[in-house]
Structures are given as C-alpha cells and as structure tokens.
Amino acid sequence: MRHNRRPDMPSSFETYRFRALNALATQRFGEMTPGEKEVLRLSSSTEYHFFEASGSRLEVSGAFIRWLATDEDAITHIDPLGIRVANSTIWSPINLSFCQIPIPLQFQFCGFQDDIFLESAAIPFLRLVHCAVDHGIFATGLKTNNSVFLRQLSSKGPIYLLGAQIGGDLDCAGTVIECLGRAFTVDRAKVNGAVFLNEGFMCSGEVRFLGTQIDGQLDCGGAKLKATPFALSADGASVRRSVYLDNGFSCPSIVRLLNVQIGGNLDCTAAQIDALECGGLQITGDLIWRGISQPGRSNLVLSGASIRAVHDERASWPDKGGLHIQDFVYQDLFLHQNNSVLKLAPADRVEWLKLQPDSELSSPQPWMQLAKLIQAYGDADGAKWVVYKYQRQEASNTNALRRVATWPYDWLEEQPLRIGLPIAILGLIGSFIFWRAKRIQAMAPTGKDALAEFEAGREIPAGYPLFNPVVYTVENVLPVIKLGQDSAWAPNHLVQAGNWLPERPAWLRRFASRWRLTRYISRLTYHRLAVVRWALIIFGWALALILAAAIGSRFKSLFGMRPRDGWQCYHLADCAIVALYAYHHRQKSSRGDAPRPQGSRCRASPQHGGRSAEDSRPGSPPA
C-alpha cells in the first residue's frame, strides 16, 4: 500500500542520507552552521524545491561547498539533483578549479562575498539564479554536460568563461554586471545550445564572444550595454541560428561583428546602436534594420559583408557618412514603409548609396551591385540609370572641364537612343537652311556641264542628281552615309545675299517683323552657308562617333560578340572600337583565329581569365 507524505516531511531514505552527510561533515569540520546543515538537508532531498527570497540569509563557507562537491564519500549520499543552496551567504571563496564534480551545483537567492573559481572544472550542470556576487566568477575552461544558468545574477566583478565547453544553453537573462573593462568574456567557447543575454541584461563593461561557437541563437533582445569604445565584440564567432539585437537593445558605442558567421538573421529591430561594425560578416539569412532609435547617430559598417537580403526603412537610415558598404554583397533589398514593402525603386536606393562618406562614393562595387539587382528585377532602364548616376558621381570628383566632357557619354550610355535627339535637331535646322538656299539659288552643282548650264540660267542636264535639302543635310550630319548629294552640290559663290526667311507663308514674315526677329537673323551669303555646312560636318562626325559607341553593344549582339565571348565594355568609346571591329571578328570567328582588339578597356570572361560565369550571362549588368 502506498503511503502519502507531506513534501516537507523527509522519507526514511532521505533521513538516512542526511544523517550520513551530517556525520561526515561533523567529522571534517566539527560544529557546523545552521546554513551548512540546511545545505545537507536540501542536497539529500529527492524533492525539487522552488524557493523564494528570504529576509534573512544563513551563512555557509566556501570550503564547505568544495568538500561537499569533491568528497567521494559525501557524494554517494547526495541526491542526483545535486548540491542545492538557497537563501544563504557564502562568506569565503569557492574554489573548484580543476575539480571533476559528478553532481550538479544549484544556488538560488544566495550572496557570494568572495570569488567563485571554476577554472577547468567539469560539472554536469551549473545554476546560479537570483544570486549576488561581490567579486567575480572565473570559469575559464569550464566543461558542463548541460546548460549553465546565470539568470537574474548581480555581479560586481567580471565573469570569465574563456574556452568553456557548455553542453546546453548559456542563459544569462536578466543578469546585471557592474564591472568595467572585460566584464563578460566568453572567448573561444563552445556552446551547444543558445546564448541568452536578454530580459533586461545589463553590463557596464565589454561583452566578448571572440571566436565563440554557438550552435543555437544569440539573443540580446532588450540588453543594455554601456561600455566604450566596444560594448559587444564577437569577432570570428559562429552562430548557427539568428542573432537578436532587438526589442530595445541599447548600445551607446560599438558592436563589433567582424568576420562573424550567422546561420539565420541579424535582427536589429527597435535597437539603439551607435555603430554596428559588420566587416566580413556572413549571414545566411537577412539583416533587419528597422525602428532604429536615434538613427542619425548610427554608423552601419557592412564592408565586405555577405547577406541574403536587407530589410530597412528610410526612418532608420543613418545620416550622410554613416553608411559603409564597400564590397558589400547581397541578393535582395526590401524597403519597408508602414508595415508594407515598397517596390524596388532605383531612385530610393541611389539615395541610400549616397549616404556613404564622400571618400567612398567613387568606389564602383556598391553601384554595380545595385545595378545588377535592378537588372535581375527586369528593370534594364533602372540599371542603366544607376550606372549613369555612378559615372556622374565619379566625374564630380574631377575638374569642371572633365565633367562637361564626360557628360554626353554618360548621358547616352544610360539611353543610347537619345542620340537621335541632337541628330533630329541638326537635321531640321540644316534642312530648313538648305531648303531656303535652294529657293534663292544659293546651292550650285559641282559638275562642270551642270554648273555651266546652272550659271547660264538653263535647266541642268537630265540625269544629274536633283538637289534635295533633307538628303543633303542627312549626308552632312551623318558622314558615314553617302547618297551622292554632298559630292554633287555645294554653296554657290556667285549668289547674292538673301534673307533666311522664305517669302511664303506670309504669316511667318509678319510674325518675324512684328517681334523684330529679322534683326537677329543674318542674311544668307555664300560664306555663311559654307560655315553652316562645315559646322554640320563637324557636328556630324562627332555625333557619328557617339552613335557608333552607342550602338556598339547592339553590333556585338548582331555579329556574335556576346558577353560570354569574353568582352565587357566599360566606356562608350571602347564600344565604338568594338563596333568597328565586330564585322571583322565575325568573318574570322568561324576559323577560330579572330584576334582581339588591343587597347580597349575590356575584360575577358573566365574561360579567358576574367569574369565569373555568373557575371557573364547575356544581359547581366557590369560587375
């Protein structure tokens, strides 16, 4: 028959174990304090006790705890729940360094008036909850099979866990460390579970996880870190899951995550961080940078980082000079506004890029990375616009003459068809002038027989090309086009000065007379007509070169010179060379002996020692 007993009533087995422990302790220490007897009672009990804070604390010596944890005879009488100490004051140091302790250690609502030494100790389980430590905890090389709980701990000294091997979680939720310098150090440790520095965790000194391997998450949600210049340092650490610096995480100095590997996300939602240094950071998941408090004071350093996606918002962007993204690689960008995700807009992200310091704005990688992403979204015009903005930004660092000289190339590289606008304007102006020149016989044939008939006032011979002002203008504006007009007609040196304006329509002459436009219009003479023709030829050659450069990429595609064939042009002038070379390349490519142009700023594809296969896809933007 089963006999029920009250929880506070010890069983005969517990009574036996308590008496045995009491005898061993009396033999070792003589008279014991009431606190030490209470430790023996709790440690021999099979009940799991939930303690509450008591107004008075019993005294226990550190030497007593060491004996109880290491004496083989005493350990045989301790319950598998381990040594349990509650509402006690440990007035001397606890030195368990290099000890192999086979039972757990649990302290609740205890005060430690001296140091705790656990260096190179082996303990199945360690639990300090709602305890106060006046000095420090030194546990370098500590080994535990299960978790380490330092919850709601108050420490005036440092906590060292360098090289510790923890078989479960490291739970420091709600802990307050009032110590300057290296206050909480877990360098080169191995944590098989998660690390919790949340629920009001506060530290006046530096928190360090240099080279630490964490198989779970690192949760610093709501933590308050006060150290300067570095509050949290985790260089070279590895976190298999996410890192949380969210939920009111506060750091008035630098958080260093250099060369850290994170298997999940880096969540900084609703955080206050003066500087987040993530150089070389590798994140399998996303960076969440939203709801940042006082973003104007923040510095976001992502140089050399690799992240799947960035989730941010305008209100959380740092001020000018606070964004560092040299060699930053990402797969996507998401701009949030009012709990919704905006469509990727080139203008928004160019504004984001311009938050970099002026000294870093001329670096091409961030701009080309953005252009590549926009191209992947199918917005080819947006990608070209980003490249154009980069080129203008690069030109802004040069002298005014260079800025003016490079503007046409940059403007046309964004949209090559814009070349049609100046060509059309010149064509309209030239056609009007030469049409008027024809009306006043200011254009004469160049052929000997035709010129003789023309000067005699007779009809020119049949079969001689008739003058067409539009075709004549096109042939001068585009010198590469030969239609026979330019060689057959030229300005007449015998022409009398005539007005630019035609006789008809009459309303045009009345309009010009009323507004006195005729005073600004020079009379049409041989010399002025010749100057107009020369100007058209000069501008025509310039536009022809620009046009050849603008359509160079089209020629490459038409004649088989695609990016996978090993060419990537970085300037329109180079595209002009490629355009003129394309036909020759096409003729010889079938024989496999096509030479490459020398002197153009092009890079070879990977099979020729250059770009990667991914960047060499047709239609991908420049890397």
Q: What's a quick, concise take on this entry?
A:
With 623 residues, the protein is an alpha/beta fold. α1 (12-29) packs antiparallel against α2 (34-44).
Nearest-integer average pLDDT = 82
Q: Categorize the overall geometry.
A: rod-shaped
**What profile does the largest beta sheet have?**
20 strands, mixed
Number of helices: 16
Rg calc: 42 Å
What portion of residues belong to β-strands?
Answer: 15-25%
Strand segment count: 41
The separation of the N and C termini measures 82 Å
Low-confidence stretches: 1-7, 553-623
What attributes does this structure have?
11-stranded parallel sheet; single chain; alpha/beta; 623 residues
Describe the structure.
The protein has 623 residues and is α/β, with parallel strands linked by helices. The protein folds into five domains: 21-135, no CATH class; 164-342, no CATH class; 352-414, no CATH class; 419-546, no CATH class; 551-608, no CATH class. 31% of the residues lie in helices and 20% in strands. Helix 1 (12-29) packs antiparallel against helix 2, helix 5 packs antiparallel against helix 6 and helix 15 runs parallel beside helix 16. It is rod-shaped, with a radius of gyration of 42 Å. The protein starts with 11 loop residues before the first helix and ends in a 34-residue tail after the last helix.
